[in-house]
Design brief:
GO terms for molecular function: ATP binding; DNA binding; transferase activity. It comes from Lactobacillus kimbladii. The chain has about 850 residues and is an alpha/beta fold. The chain is built from 35 helices and 22 strands. It is elongated.
Length: about 850
Amino acid sequence: MKKAKYRVFEKLRQLLDDKSAVTTKEVAKAMNLSRGVTSSYLAQLYHEGLLLKKGTKPVYWQLISNSQDAFEQLIGANGSLKNIVSQCKASVNYPPSGFPLIITGPSGSGKSYLASLIFKYAQQEGVINKGAHFVVLNCADYANNPELLSSVLFGYKKGAFTGADTDKTGLVDQADNGYLFLDEVHRLPRESQEKLFVLLDSGKFYPLGENKHFKQVNVRFIFATTEKIEDKLLNTFLRRVPLKIALPRFSERPLVEKYQLIEFFLKHEANRINRTIKISFNTIQVLVNQKQEGNIGSLANKIKLLCAENFNSSDKKAIEIPNNKNISGPNVDWLVFKPNSQDLLVNLAKENSKKYLSTLLSTLYDNENKNREISEQNLVLNQFVHDIKRNSVLLIYDQNFEKLLMQQLATATEKIGKKYGILKYLNSQKLCEAAKVLSVIQECLDLPDISNLLTLVSKHYPRTVYLCKQIRSCFKVDINNDWFIPIFLYAVFDEIAGKIESQNLLAIMVCHGGNVASDICAIVNELCGNYIFEAFDMPLNVSNHEIAQKIELYIRKQGRKYDGTILLFDMGSLSNLYKEVKVLLNNDLLVINNLTTEIALDLGLQIQQNKSFKKIAEKAESYPSTMSVKYFEGISQKANIIVSCMSGEGLAEEIKRILQKVLQTDVEIITMDYHELKSTLQRHDLSYFKNTNFILTTNNVDHQKELDVLNLYDIMDEDGDKRLRQLLKEMGETKKNVDKLTSELLKFFTIGGIKGRLRFLNPDVVIPEIQEIVAKFENYYHVTLTNKFKLSLCMHLALMLERLMLDQTSDQESKDTQEKSKEEKDFYHVADKIFHNIEQKYNIKINDYELSLIYELFKTNSE
């Protein structure tokens, strides 16, 4: 995913297809962002040199021309050296012939390189000809021979000194209509400085030995020195150089530019020797933090030396530069530079960052899957933040984005924290840790899939996840929503999550007009020190149906079940509100009208103390008569069947699907996790299940004797089948529907039983065909086979069909010469007709041996 500011940049480019400039407001509207956030992104793009800004109210934005000027090659041109570059350009373009400048800075800081770029820029701008010369003189080379220096610089006439046999032009002549760069200018003697400032004033000079006829030239000057110019150069000379530029030391450059300089020299070496270079991030960190006495020049030499020390001319493999501890192998954070590669160091870091994020995700998922404490997850995140400073993730860590994100987090947590009474737990240090990880995530283009962790987190911390989503909804910054939830939860909610999740009652308050509900909610939650209530501020003219829709949406977002629900209203028809809301719930419901802050606090404290719904409802009856109270206790208001399976809700949901498909009576099918069922049975008396017809489960549970609990596997037995049929009959189901249900359940269990044993046949296709065969046997012999026998018979027939299709028949087939009884002969005759269609379909023949096995099964069942 592209960083948000660059998506803003792309949108701005689209808008500029039709116009020459756009305003911040236009970009904000197109991106659906606030004006403040959009302005922040545009300002960042401007400082990166990607945009032009004009005007004040309003500000207009334009794209910078794609034509790259010479200074684009300069690392820091859009960063720490931006102002310097701007001044250099001014020195080139100022009419009529620019003006001279002097560049100061320590040795190796890039003075000569900057001078060469000024010359290239002047050519690009057309202020000097393409063929103009860039003449360089290091004054230190002639420091001990002032006369020779003067002759080299200004030229000389024949006879000017011994050995001057002919006239000779100097460097000033050669630089005519171009640039003359005098390095180490402080080494110029006083006389030469005086000659220079005359030349600077008038463009005139006298060669050595000439005092009558001057020369006229048009030379642009660049001077450089490592010394303090006020101490070494004449004031009269300095006054004629209006621009003084000071280049910083390597140690004074921003961190990102240090990395860019290292990247530049590594790429240069890879191209120069045509060999891939692998360098550990630890070594890069050493180069960044090491004091470079010779600055950039010294850095270049150190990188060259590192490559040379690890170079083997007979080995064509990559040059591997390990860290300073000489550690190699899979644990080293490598960055790889290939010859002619365009990969940036930051892109290489992003590849490594994906690896680190994958490791982080794997650790968090494993811990969550093992139900580890949230404090352990918090420690894992802290470790990741700590390690950012030691590995290449640091290269994509955007401090500007983190700062913007922190502002958003502070605003959002202030608002949400106050409403839900948890502000004191959301301190700035925790927010900073979350922001650091989220800033790294924001930079990665190809993030690992976090859906599995998100599912577990939502299951284990549903209420806390809801609060995280509330905080996220307050943001104006574009971040990865899926990653935000677990990262923010682990980083910020480690102390309070357990307390938030311990609440077993759902509490909601609804008020009409203004922010009454939110205000009361904030007071109660803060005094309770926990997220107890959710509040909804509704318009005065809202209908009960609209209120119910709002509550329904909130309930669906909870992602968990509660023992009961408490709804507080400020006004309205209680009976109508009760009818609208109670159908949404499968738990106890208490509705109180005409709420006050005092009553809401009383309820909040009871919920905080884990009082049962029943006790809270009983106390509510003693509230003032002006407050209407109505409550319903029970797992459901409708007639219901509970389905629970030890193996999880997946199997229970399949059984629910079968029941809903077949049953005709208006009955609700409720699925529950096995442990949830046990807990519910333990916490409630029989009245809680007054509308429950029976419970279907795969395991026996302790329950009240009055409650019918059937084991799903027992209904395959005769007694279990009779019991299920009786209960369904009492519900009003017809025999036809009951027969159909047992057939569907038989089919379901049969398919499940043979799925892993059939290699060729599709059980979903073959089982209905076999059930039809079994039904024909029942009709012919006028018998009702038990479900358990049908299950066994169906599995046998399915496996038999596959054996015959794969020609894996027994060696005993057709060898039994024993005389068959009349009953057996009759069975063979009937079976031959019953199996006829399936034999035709699958192109098989069911031999006498297979028929004898089926006969034995029927015979055993009838005895």
